[in-house]
Give the backbone structure.
Amino acid sequence: MLTKRIIACLDIKDGRTVKGINFEGIKDAGNPVELAMLYAQQGIDELVFLDITATIEKRQTLIALVKQIAAHINIPFTVGGGIKSVQDVEALLQHGADKISINTAAFQQPQLIKNISDVFGSQCVVLAIDTKQENDGNWYVYLNGGRTKTNTQTLEWAKKVVDLGAGEILLTSMNHDGTKNGFALDITAQLSEQLHVPIIASGGAGTVEHFKEVFEIGKADAALAASIFHYKEIEIFKLKNYLKKQNIYVR
């Protein structure tokens, strides 16, 4: 049986870890280097660092901060935000990232996915999709940190990016983000069933049961959370012990 992964996410704004609800009402959640070290010590499987305003501010990712975090952890480390070229990826990998996450730039320039995959391998490319279920019941892709709606449906875009060389998809439900009411099980299961790459579910974790649901019903390969870890609402080792008792094996 393939083991599942528990991933902690650091959303970064102005060099600090932040967290909001439904992508709004951003609040400070602590020092990213300290949090990264803590999670690595507590047994988190992977860490994701998202510079959430890099694209809006039209600047590159905070490389100095990436380097600082990487020096203190020994787990897989994914970095995203403001990546627009193969050169941007190379710089991040040289400064300690193991994988990169792209979102808006990939949508605007799909060839970028193939270019990065060709140079560094598909295992390096985590395609982030911010998605929202609209009144018509369909899930649509959003860009620019959830600020810009597109008319592209999520499953359609996900299939395209996998064909272009994305090795993993980080799926964040904007409807569920920060609510702690559980993950978006239906869209997660759709992607998990129809694509051959790992799906990371993000948005909505509030209880240990939510992780069980997203692995069993949502068929996710990994589950990502932020605020419940930042504010110590769920301890990582207790979560892993719970899942083990449910016969869900994590790394």
About this structure: Residues 5-245 form a domain with the TIM Barrel fold (CATH 3.20.20.70).
